[in-house]
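Lab notebook, bench 4. The sequencing result for the construct came back, and we need a structural model before the next group meeting so we can plan mutations. Quick request posted to the team channel:

Model the 3D structure of this chain.
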Amino acid sequence: MRFHHNLAAAITGTAIVSALVITLPQKAQALTGKEISEIARNITVLIKGQNDNHGSGFIISKNGDTYYVLTANHVVAHEDTYVIMTHDQEYHQLDNSKVRHLSGSDLAVIEFTSDRTYQTAKLADSNTAKQGSEVFVSGWPRLTTVGKQSGSDLIRQFTDGQISGLLSQPLEGYAMSYTNTTLGGMSGGPVLDTGGRVVGVHGLGDTEDSDRLLNQGYGEEAASLASLVKTGFNYAIPINTFLDLAAQQRIYMNLAVETTAPNPLGAAYVASGKPDPRDRVAETDVLNKINEIFGPIRDGVNTIQRVCGLFGC
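Done. Here's the predicted structure in token form:
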């Protein structure tokens, strides 16, 4: 058992806050693509705001009934009434006052409380992810033009690809590039290796130039849809960057980290012709749940403001 070199115990006032980062032995049996998708499903969350803010994240730690989620900072950068939807399609309120933004990167840690048991991600030293390594990205895209016309369901995506390189000069922490196809709204989702361990946080991608497609004769709808699909290079913030920044900024939590290289993939991932029901949810249901959770709070605030306007507070 070893500890990550930058996550030692820190003294804050008179209290000792320790970050326990456990290096676990690598699972002997190789995982299949289907098994990795199942792991990704269990840890990936949808983050949805009432004001059209939309993104993904993944559960990294638990303390009692409090769960911690790592995501891209731009997903929760704007104050909004957010819910976090876990894999069982339960909705949890996000407290904006408890969002922790990691300065120097596009990363944030958010939290929710639940008496249910949820799987936490197993992390891996991102230095084990080499150029050419197979990786998988999981996330909940926002609705595309076609999606809006075909049922308005949000569908979790799980795509495979390979690491294509590392940037010599990271942009807001983004350094790991890969060939996986992604969509807007998958930002904050996990990038997993063939061991089912998270090696990066997805959040940046090149898209098609819609103006160029229009000039080439594509229709407006096709050009608009193509501009949403990140078909070029996609980028993630390596997990090691998160570990280093969390230690520097005194954000401590229990994390499971492996330092060994992953086993080769046991069997390739083959996407099903029909999405798993657990990977599909109507966007209207999510928005209705936001109103159900925050409506009474908003009504109470409005009532207090009206009373204060009449009588003073």
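The helical segments are 33-43, 145-149, 210-215, 220-226, 239-248, 283-311.
Will bring this to the meeting.
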